[in-house]
Known about the structure:
The protein has 502 residues and is mainly alpha-helical. The protein folds into 2 domains: 20-49, no CATH class; 52-463, no CATH class. It has helices spanning 7-13, 22-25, 27-33, 42-45, 53-76, 86-89, 95-102, 127-138, 146-175, 183-187, 190-195, 201-216, 220-233, 241-251, 254-278, 280-292, 300-306, 314-338, 345-359, 368-378, 382-407, 417-443. The longest helix has 30 residues, at 146-175. The model is unreliable at 1-15 and 480-502 (pLDDT under 50).
Amino acid sequence: MCGMPSAETTDVSRQEPEPVQPTREDAVAAAGSEFIGGPLGRRALLGRSWWTPVRVIALVMLGMFALGMIQKFPCYDGSWFYGASSQYTHACYSDIPHLYQGRGFADGLVPYFDKLPGDMEYLEYPVLTGVFMEVASWLTPGSGTIQHQEQVYWMVNAGMLMICAVVIAVCVTRTHRRRPWDGLLVALAPAFALTATINWDLFAVALTAAAMLMWSRGRTLAFGVLLGLATAAKLYPVLLLGPLFVLCWRAGKWRAFAVATVGAAVAWLVVNLPVMFLAPDGWSKFYTFSQERGVDFGSFWLIIQQHMDTPLNTDVVNTLATALMVLACLGVAALTLTAPRRPRFAQLAFLVVAAFILTNKVYSPQYVLWLIPLAALARPKWRDFLIWQACEVAYFLGIWLYLAYTTSGDKHQGLPTDGYQVAIAAHLVGTLYLCAVIIRDIWMPDRDVVRRSGEDDPSGGVLDGAEDVFVFGYAAHPPHYGFHDAEQPPPVNWGKDPRGSL
């Protein structure tokens, strides 16, 4: 009939758009692709061959993780076990073998329930991470020398953490449907490979990445449950509820926020309540240790303290760090409610976690793992990502060389205090730089490489394409509809079409 669209036309209009090709929109990605024969062909980009983005990125992650393990091998045969400074000069230190005996796993002690010899008294990790450590100890044979057991314990943990690494890469790859190749940012991140087996952070990062994937698919309860489990493994994931609250406030999605928050609270309580009631002293050790811990490696507080005659009081630092974090969160909230377009969830998640890292009184080198998946979703631009990664690698090398300097006695091998402070400054400046470009993207949406393809918030779940109901300083705007809904009206004029070029 005249005026009625044909079935063929309707089918074409509803076809899924092609994946974004990073080698066409990113000069650094295009240049880097020459090392592997140039940009991928159309069949690979559309997933019409075995080499789908998920499979390619998972294999790349496995390869990079294996390289990270190889980087630790100079310590495998002795440096971990004799306290040698070579574990610092070779930058291959790991907490995992040291804590096998130091936290009672070699002696069969039960975390949180059995008291440890020495000053620590109890395991100073959240409950779900303690379970992860305990399961790895069950898989470690109790025969042979303690050195052999610690070697096997590290290998067992590395295998379990490798699974977490693949989960992270796959989740990031699938979170932005039209940008699967952004997962390569995670898989190829040098700081990821270097820090993956220092500690157990990857477990919490994997749960958080899975939670972000669930939220992007509109599964708010699953998001909440996974986020609660992640918070039971590491404290930082709970920070994501802050930006989610402000975003749901602006979009009027209170029910989704309530479901996510209740799911997170219930999941956290299910894991923590048994230990909380049966072993309250052991359960609380993580929280009391975090509160009582003084200024430590990697923080700007350490730079300040090293220039003072009298060390800063821990209570004073706690108060000041908390105040700075609160101010940063208020700034993110103000940014969310006044921005010309509602920010994307991944952008705010990165900013809040980065604020926590920047204001905290300690920065362990593996904390960068918290930010890498969020950075790939918030600012998938290779140049900015690699600038930040270069700063993190500089810090990774700096802290081990500084420890080598302090433990080498009169030899003074390594990096002196002033050099280490430069390494700390590199980490701080790199993280602040990435925060700055993300904030610029929020204020100037046409600069956002995710939104310029016509999408609103592909990781936003129920927030994607939702209308604003509460905005400070601007009239509430309709969403920018893109390829995800061809029947919706065109976007309002934001001064520049976000689908245009940078």
